[in-house]
Design brief:
single chain, 351 residues, alpha/beta, 5-stranded mixed sheet, 10 helices, 19% strand, globular, binds 5'-O-[(R)-(carboxyoxy)(hydroxy)phosphoryl]adenosine, binds zinc ion
Length: 351
C-alpha cells in the first residue's frame, strides 16, 4: 500500500511517499520520496513558533515540498501511483494544521483518493517501527517527549492505547527551549543544552558527577505518572538573575543541572510505569528522545528490568512526514483509522 503523508502541525512542512507492507507485528516501510522544509530559521528570531507565521510558511512551502517529493518518487504530479493520503489532524497549532488538511483534501479531490486523519502523537509513538528488528511484545509503555507533549502511554496492543500520565503544565521540550533561551541560545535550544551538559560532564572527568547547581524536581515523589516543568523554568530564571553575567563554564554547569532535573523524573516515572504494568517493551518517541542523557537513563531501565527498548532513528525523532505515514498504516491495519469526508484540525486532539 502506498501512502502519501503530510505533516504541518508545527514548524516543519513535510511530505513523504511510503510503500508500506506486512502485518502489524512485522511491518516494512520503503521511502519513495521524502521532503522536509524547516521554518526554524524564521521562528528563531522570535524565540518560539508563531502560529500565523507558521501558517503562512506552510502555505508557501506545501506545493514546493509536494513537487519535490513526487519528483524524487518518479511520480506523475497529475496522477501519482498512491492509494491513500494521510494528514496530521492534531494535536498542534490549529492554523498550521488547517493548511495541511486543506492541501490534503484538495489533492484527494484532484487525484480521487481517500484521505485519513492521523494523530501526530501516534506518529511519534510508532516512528520506531520504521526499522524494527523483532516483533514488539505487549504490554508496552511509551514515553512521548516533544516540544508540546510529555506523556506516558500504556499499550495493550496497537489499538489499545491509554495515557496514564502527562505534564501538568509545560512540556519537557518546551522547558529545554526556555532554559536555552535564558542562557542566551536560540530556539529550539534543546540540543544546545544537551551539548553543554555533555561538555560539563566531560570536563569533570566523570559522567556520574552531578552539576554544582541543583534545580528542583517537582512531582518526583507523587503517586502518579504526571510531570511538571514550569517550576524548573522559574528556578533557572532565578539562578540566572542571581548569577548576573555568565561565563561559558557556568552556562555548561547550569545546562547540566537543568538536564538532570528535567530528565530524571522522566526516567523514574517510566521505571515505575514499566514495573507496575509488567511491561515487556519501552517505546520512546518525540524530539527529546534524541537526548543522550535520557537515552542513557532508559538503557539502564532496559538492562535492569529486562525490557526491550525501542527508539526511533535519529532523523525520525523530531517532526517528519514518515512517522505520519507509519501511524496511518498502523491505523489502517487495526481499523482505528478510517477515511474521512471532512477533517477538522484539533489543536488538543488526545491519543
Ligand atoms: O517532536 P518535536 O520535533 O516537535 C514537537 O512535536 O513538539 O520536538 C521538538 C523538541 C524541541 O523542544 C527541542 O528542543 C527538543 O525536541 N529536542 C531536544 C533534543 N533534540 C530536540 N531536547 C533535549 N535534548 C535534545 N538532544
Ligand atoms: Zn512532534
Amino acid at each position: 500500500m502506498r501512502i502519501l503523508a503530510i505533516e504541518t502541525s508545527c514548524d516543519e512542512t513535510a511530505i513523504a511517499i511510503l510503500e508500506c507492507g506486512g502485518e502489524l507485528l512485522s511491518p516494512s516501510f520503503r521511502v519513495l520520496g521524502n521532503t522536509l522544509l524547516s521554518q526554524i530559521h524564521i521562528h528563531k528570531e522570535y524565540g518560539g513558533v508563531f502560529p500565523m507565521l507558521a501558517k503562512r510558511e506552510h502555505l508557501k512551502n506545501l506545493p514546493i515540498v509536494l513537487a519535490e517529493t513526487l519528483k524524487e518518487a518518479g511520480e506523475d504530479p497529475e496522477n501519482p501511483d498512491i492509494d491513500i493520503i494521510a494528514v496530521t489532524a492534531g494535536p498542534g497549532l490549529e492554523p498550521a494544521l488547517w493548511t495541511g488538511i486543506a492541501f490534503a483534501e484538495e489533492l484527494a479531490e484532484k487525484w480521487r483518493k481517500p484521505v485519513i486523519p492521523v494523530n501526530h502523537m501516534e506518529g511519534h509513538l510508532f516512528s520506531f517501527l520504521f526499522k524494527q528488528a523483532e516483533p514488539i511484545r505487549f504490554p508496552a509503555i511509551a514515553l512521548l517527549v516533544s516540544g508540546g507533549h510529555t506523556e506516558l502511554v500504556l499499550l495493550d496492543g496497537f489499538d489499545k492505547l491509554k495515557v496514564i500520565g502527562q505534564t501538568r503544565d509545560d512540556a519537557v521540550g518546551e522547558a529545554f527551549d526556555k532554559a536555552a533561551r535564558l542562557l542566551g541560545f536560540p530556539y529550539p535550544g534543546g540540543p544546545k543544552i544537551s551539548e553543554l551538559a555533555g561538555i560539563a560532564r566531560k570536563r569533570s572527568g566523570s559522567t556520574l558527577r552531578k552539576s554544582p547547581f541543583l534545580f528542583p524536581r517537582p512531582m518526583l515523589n507523587t503517586n502518579d505518572y504526571d510531570f511538571s516543568y514550569s517550576g524548573l523554568k522559574t528556578a533557572v530564571l532565578y539562578a540566572v538573575k542571581k548569577l548576573g553575567e555568565l561565563d561559558m563554564e557556568t552556562k555548561e554547569d547550569l545546562a547540566q543541572a537543568f538536564e538532570e532535573a528535567a530528565i530524571e523524573p522522566l526516567v523514574l516515572k517510566t521505571r515505575r510505569a514499566l514495573e507496575e504494568h509488567g511491561a515487556q517493551t519501552l517505546i520512546v518517541g518525540g524530539g527529546v528522545s534524541a537526548n543522550r542523557y535520557l537515552q542513557t537513563g532508559l538503557a539502564v531501565l532496559r538492562d535492569e528490568l529486562g525490557v526491550d527498548l525501542r527508539l526511533p532513528l535519529p532523523d525520525l525523532t523530531t517532526d517528519n512526514a514518515l512517522m505520519i505515514g507509519i501511524a496511518a498504516y498502523v491505523g489502517i491495519l487495526t481499523g482505528r483509522s478510517k477515511p474521512a469526508e471532512a477533517i477538522t484540525a484539533r489543536g488538543n486532539l488526545p491519543l
